[in-house]
Specification:
By secondary structure, this protein is of the alpha/beta class. It has one domain: Rossmann fold, CATH 3.40.50. The protein has helices spanning 3-6, 13-22, 26-29, 79-88, 90-105, 111-120, 129-132, 150-157, 169-179, 213-223, 240-243, 266-275, 291-294, 303-322; strands at 46-49, 61-65, 71-74, 140-144, 161-165, 183-184, 198-204, 224-235, 278-285, 328-335.
């Protein structure tokens, strides 16, 4: 039990259990999460919904907006809390530094994968297909929240002109050195960009963190040319993982109460984009497995056990994609304003 609880023995047992389940620091974090309201409609006009583990939840409740159907934590992080986490938080910076070290140390580790892909024509891992397949040589693309530039690098190799938005200073520096491209070290809302200047604006796991989804989508429509594409990948609230082992809060994959503003389903995000003068032209599901969430530290047992579990996970991936309950989905929408 954490240090904050030791000083308060009067807390009810169900509250203590929930704090331990969600995060050891949730009791303190909760004090900083005070904002209520839909990130798109910007008013609190929603009904509480329940998942398996939120029925008795004291802290983490979800609301579904009555106007746009977006699902959001209630309450959710305020704008200052989100920005301070990504810009100044020591834990986030440490994770970024560790990831950069990993990139520097794995340059020769992908040779076997490249050989396999060359021989079979199949990729061993998911490689941002929704973004790469939608782009063509010469397209001008803005990658918002580019992270460590994996997708941007693939698009550059395809012959696209790529610029990125990355507010975190350490990641922005890494992207400039790794890719040698223009990096806007800011949020999209605060970045000055010309109207109708991009063919594609992409968001890989970004929408979930936005305090104002409405402002970001409006800015995206402004900088996209008529007929240009908004492409976004995000977690699927309808996924088997979210409705079972991840509920009520995705701490198991590194996300925490400082960062989560929205949960999406294909229907809700389609509705939001259509309200914003976009036409949804495709929805794709990522081949995410199930066992990988149970065995994050590696598959248990000997080689035979690991092999069997990995085969089962591949089968599960196919099933989840076919049933549209995969953990992540991508949506591709065309800017129809002025067309």
């Amino acid at each position: 039990m954490n240090k904050h609880l030791n000083n308060n023995l009067l807390l009810p047992m169900n509250l203590i259990n929930e704090i331990e389940l969600i995060d050891k620091e949730t009791y303190e974090i909760k004090k900083e999460i005070q904002h209520k309201g839909c990130p798109f409609c910007e008013i609190d006009n929603g009904e509480f919904i329940e998942t398996t583990l939120t029925k008795q939840a004291v802290f983490f409740k979800f609301k579904k907006c009555n106007l746009c159907s977006l699902i959001y934590p209630s309450p959710r992080p305020n704008k200052q809390t989100i920005e301070s986490y990504f810009l100044t938080n020591d834990i986030f910076f440490k994770k970024t530094e560790n990831k950069i070290v990993e990139f520097d140390n794995k340059k020769s580790s992908s040779f076997a994968k490249r050989v396999w892909e060359k021989i079979t024509g199949h990729r061993l891992i998911y490689r941002y297909q929704e973004f790469v397949e939608s782009a063509k040589k010469g397209d001008k693309i803005l990658d918002v929240g580019a992270g460590f530039g994996d997708c941007a690098e693939l698009l550059l190799k395809k012959g696209c002109i790529v610029e990125v938005v990355e507010p975190n200073a350490l990641r922005a520096k890494f992207l400039r050195e790794k890719l040698g491209i223009r990096v806007y070290e800011n949020t999209l809302e605060k970045t000055e960009l010309q109207e109708s200047s991009y063919d594609i604006v992409m968001f890989s796991q970004v929408f979930v963190h936005l305090f104002s989804l409405k402002n970001t989508i409006e800015k995206t429509r402004y900088i996209l040319r008529p007929g240009g594409l908004l492409i976004s990948s995000q977690l699927n609230f309808n996924s088997i993982v979210q409705q079972t082992i991840r509920s009520p809060y995705p701490g198991r994959i590194g996300l925490n109460p400082f960062t989560m503003c929205s949960w999406f389903t294909p229907a809700s995000l389609s509705k939001i984009l259509e309200k914003s003068e976009f036409k949804v032209i495709n929805v794709k599901f990522r081949p995410t497995g199930f066992w990988e969430f149970l065995f994050q530290e590696g598959y248990p047992g000997g080689l035979l056990t690991k092999f069997i579990l990995k085969i089962m996970d591949e089968i599960i991936k196919i099933i989840l994609m076919k049933t549209r309950t995969s953990d992540q989905f991508a949506i591709i929408a065309k800017n129809i304003k002025f067309i």
